[in-house]
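Q: Could you fold this chain for me?
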Amino acid sequence: MLLHHHQEIEVVFVPEATGLRSIVDAVESQSSGKFKVHVWNPYSRTVSDDAREASKMFHLFISSLILSVPVFLIRLPYINCFVNKNLGPFIISDLLKWVLVSIVQFVIGKRFYVAAYRALRNGSTNMDVLVALGTSASYFYSVCALLYGAITGFSSPTYFETSSMLITFVLFGKCLEVVAKGKTSDAIKEE
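A: Sure. Below is the predicted structure, expressed as structure tokens.
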């Protein structure tokens, strides 16, 4: 793709499809003077992109961890005795878990829903579809069990901590993946 800008040409190319020689030939064939050429590979990742991605994943992971640990700790007997009181038809511990996990599921975990939607729209499945499906099943079952218990008075177990901890562990894995990719690309650049 060639874009002309006052004696400058910007060349965007896919290195697997086009070599540097063909770029030079294309510029020479279209030029009638001296040009300044900027060659850019849209698929190459810069160090700042890697650092930005790693930082974003780390912040998502830490946020999810901070919200998921209390959900897990509420189940412990010495903490549960403080939050095991009724608030109308609900138990306070269940409401706390519902609120905290909703943030993890739909704010922090939004990236999984967006990526899953894109994959399904393209007719494929990937890890994001699996994470979105699995955590949604756990989350929505827990919401239904909570509401059923509030309406009927028969308490059913909820599994809110399952969805939040799954999202947290997957984000931790994504952090490790981004760091590994960065180290691999750095090693390749040094060779």
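A (continued): The two ends are 30 Å apart (CA to CA).
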